[in-house]
Amino acid sequence: MHTASRTSIQQRSLISQMFLICLHLIQRLLVAKFFVGLFMGIISTVIVYNLKEPIEKPRFRPDQSKFEYEKNQQTFDDSNPSKPSIWNSSWDGFKSENKFPRHFYLIRHGQYFDNARTMEEMKLTLLGKEQLEYTGKRLNQTKTHFDRLIHSGMVRAFESAVIINQQFDSKLDLIEDKSLSEGLPVAPIPYAGINQRDIETYGDRARIDGAFAKYFHRARSDQNKETHDIIVFHANILRYFICKIMQFPVEAWLRITLNHGSITQITILSDGGIVLKTIGDSGFIPANKVTF
Q1: Which residue spans traverse the membrane (predicted)?
Q2: C-alpha span between 126 and 172 (Å, rounded)
Q3: Tens digits of per-residue pLDDT, 201-249?
Q4: Contacts for 210-216: CB closer than 8 Å, 24+ residues apart
Q5: Residue ranges per structural domain of the chain
Q6: What is the CATH number of domain 71-289?
Q7: pTM for the complete prediction?
Q8: Which of 29, 185, 208, 252 could join 240 in a cystine, given CB atoms 3.0 to 4.6 angstroms apart?
């Protein structure tokens, strides 16, 4: 009797031990399966990620000598009509007809006698003449082959253009354009002493807009090279042109300050893109000779 009972107990103990062993094995298999799955998931993610084509983001290369776009990297999405546009690519009304950019060097005239009685007497002061000598020397140092030297019909702009030309190794013919003469384009915002009544009385926006359209546009089909034009004119119109070509609110023109003899450099790319390289650069003029 005792022998049978002892045998039964031993059998039950053996079964319990086998059950525990199986349970441990199952647990280890589950843990191993978990880590194998995790490892395979990581491997699969890495493989899928590497198979995807890299997405090139638009880039702009601020190269000091060219300031040109990396055009092949540019991507634009204008297909969504509900998406507000911050740039009107057809701002000049022209289509891209060739690959050549147009470079402009916009010069404010030198200091002049602003309290003179007549326009003809508003000539450059001695300091104003000296300022434009620095401007001409700076332009000549760039070793740029300039195509045209244009000036407004006002005496201070003409004198400034003459002095600039005197500093060049290769002289240019001077071109007068009276549409570039000084004027009031629009009433500035915020108010700064010029209101809409002043604009209606003294302003000449139609003439000023006509001058803008005449010079500022992408290259036309008959342009067969890069062009570099110098325009010597006046602060009001120059500031208005900056706002207009950058598609800023034109009423902001009076918020910009331009020193006498300063250089504003703008490039119009063949696709109508605009690169504003400098605004009112006068760092080449000694500090004690800078005026505005």
Answers
A1: 30-51
A2: 23
A3: 778 899 999 999 999 999 998 899 999 999 999 999 999 999 999 999 9
A4: 210/179, 211/177, 211/179, 211/180, 211/237, 212/241, 212/244, 212/245, 213/92, 214/177, 214/179, 215/104, 215/150, 216/92, 216/104, 216/241, 216/244, 216/245, 216/266, 216/268
A5: 71-289
A6: 3.40.50.1240
A7: 0.72
A8: 185
